[in-house]
Design brief:
With 456 residues, the chain is of the alpha/beta class. The protein has two domains: 233 residues, Type I PLP-dependent aspartate aminotransferase-like (Major domain) (Aspartate Aminotransferase, domain 2, 3-Layer(aba) Sandwich); 133 residues, Aspartate Aminotransferase, domain 1 (Alpha-Beta Complex), CATH 3.90.1150. Strands 4-10-9-8-7-5-6 form a seven-stranded mixed sheet, with helices on both faces. A four-stranded antiparallel sheet has the order 11-12-15-14, covered by helices on one side. The chain starts with a helix and ends in a 9-residue tail after the last helix. The structure holds D-serine. D-serine binds next to loops.
């Protein structure tokens, strides 16, 4: 089990069940430390929105958060997000802005850039992308013209919307060719990647996606990109936190550019970032601003810097390794209960599960788990016979529960609770079995509270 404040945000022993009134009082006192004096002002000025903030905290604390792309960022990151840096216009880059008064935000951005370069061993970093999709848009802007061909993983096999899906700018403006997974191994079909690259000679080759449980062979992609004269781009949004924590190999030495979100395993604020080789730095900076974005979100950039410092601490390495150990335990314990892990398991923070063996759709599974206090998402599995809105699978991830301090014993229990919810309930929160499972979830999260209350 992870110990220590930096790893888990835990500050004290678990709380006992409280009356609703006492609970809200305690909530208010700890929230002062999360939001500063502003929370008091917010609650008197706008109780409606203050109530939403409190009830979201209540929701986070009351259930098991297994969305693979989410995490529980630290109070320090939240403090930077809720700061006056939000006020500042700072179009441009440190030392060359289009606005006066940028001396302090320049410092924040330069600190963040230096931390990102050091953490990832990168030549260059850009912290301004508002999101992962914005960072990805900048890559297209830097390297492609409309109509150019790109090669990426297909969305139903684990890719991402911005990798050439027809409903995204990337599929509308570019000619996207997609590779998938091998039917037997369910891992990336590297032979197909090579065949398609040689046939189409794409401008960009992309590795990465949203539902890939296995490590990616970056050296293979680098060599292939060199062979066909393509730029090699890694979308590392899902796993960059594991790279930061030195728990899995880094794509940075291999890729021309690596884009990512900052809020998944990395545990930073919601946003995007990119790191790249020096030769592409000026082109990518121009593609982020002024090609794709206007004013950067300086409060968010400061929060990214805070997070990068957290990720450089030894406790974060312990955390990243535990995220994987937990994901592996959860995947195998679900598998033992007939909820088959795609590829047979995971090397990362997430696993994808085929529910056909238990005769439940992804959509029903999401509803049944949700009614039992377990938050996860339905997901298409490779060669899925169901449409995406129904899907035959679920995706589960361990970033949040590991932040809460849970370990492999808790993963075994969670697998059992998921199995019970999926096979013995019907999505109705009033169902007696769902109520019983919710009680067990409450006990578990009570022992490992998210954002523990001061003095509890
Ligand atoms: N929407 C994210 C996810 O859940 O994986 C990817 O952008």
């Amino acid at each position: 089990m992870i110990q220590g404040d930096e790893a888990t945000h835990r500050v004290s022993a678990p709380a006992r069940p409280l009356s609703r009134l006492r609970f809200l009082e305690r909530l208010m006192s700890i929230d002062q430390t999360f939001y500063g004096s502003d929370f008091g002002q917010l609650s008197s000025q706008d109780p409606e929105i203050a109530g939403v903030l409190l009830s979201e905290l209540d929701r986070l604390r009351g259930g098991l958060q297994l969305i693979a792309s989410e995490n529980l960022t630290s109070p320090a990151v939240l403090a930077a997000l809720g700061s006056t840096l939000s006020n500042k216009y700072a179009e441009g880059y440190p030392g060359r802005r289009y606005y006066g008064g940028c001396s302090e935000v320049d410092k924040a951005e330069m600190i963040g850039i230096a931390r990102a370069k050091a953490l990832f061993g990168a030549d260059h970093a850009n912290l301004q992308p508002h999101s992962g999709a914005s960072a990805n848009l900048a890559v297209y802007g830097a390297f492609c013209q409309p109509g150019d061909t790109i090669l990426a993983m297909s969305l139903p096999h684990g890719g991402h919307l911005t990798h050439g899906s027809k409903v995204s700018f990337s599929g509308k403006w570019f000619n996207a060719v997609h590779y998938g997974v091998d039917k037997e191994t369910e891992d990336i079909d590297y032979a197909q990647v090579a065949t398609l690259a040689r046939q189409h000679r794409p401008k960009l080759i992309v590795a990465g996606g949203s539902a890939i449980p296995r490590l990616i062979d970056f050296e293979f992609f680098r060599n292939l990109a060199d062979e066909v004269g393509a730029i090699f781009w890694v979308d590392a949004a899902h796993f960059i936190g594991l790279v930061a924590g030195k728990a899995i190999p880094s794509p940075v030495p291999y890729a021309d550019v690596v884009t990512f979100t900052t809020h998944k395993v990395l545990r930073g604020p919601r946003g995007g970032m990119l790191v790249c080789k020096e030769e592409h730095a000026a082109k990518l900076d121009k593609a982020v601003f002024p090609m794709m974005q206007g004013g950067p979100l300086m409060h968010c950039i400061a929060a990214k810097a805070v997070n990068l410092h957290e990720c450089a601490q030894p406790a974060y390495e312990v955390y990243a390794k535990q995220v994987i150990a937990n994901a592996q335990q959860l995947a195998s314990s679900l598998g033992e209960r007939g909820i088959r892990p795609i590829t047979g398991g995971t090397d990362t923070h997430l696993s994808l599960h085929d529910l056909q063996g238990i005769g439940v759709t992804g959509k029903d599974a999401e509803a049944r788990a949700g009614a039992a206090g377990i938050v996860l998402n339905k997901n298409a599995i490779p060669f899925d016979p169901q449409p995406p809105n129904t899907a035959s699978g679920i995706r589960v991830g361990t970033p949040s529960v590991t932040t809460q301090g849970m370990g492999t014993d808790e993963m075994k229990l969670i697998a059992d609770l998921i199995h019970q919810a999926l096979t013995q309930t019907d999505g109705d929160p009033d169902n007696a079995k769902a109520t019983e499972i919710r009680g067990q979830v409450t006990d578990l999260v009570g022992r490992f509270p998210a954002y523990p209350r001061s003095g509890s």
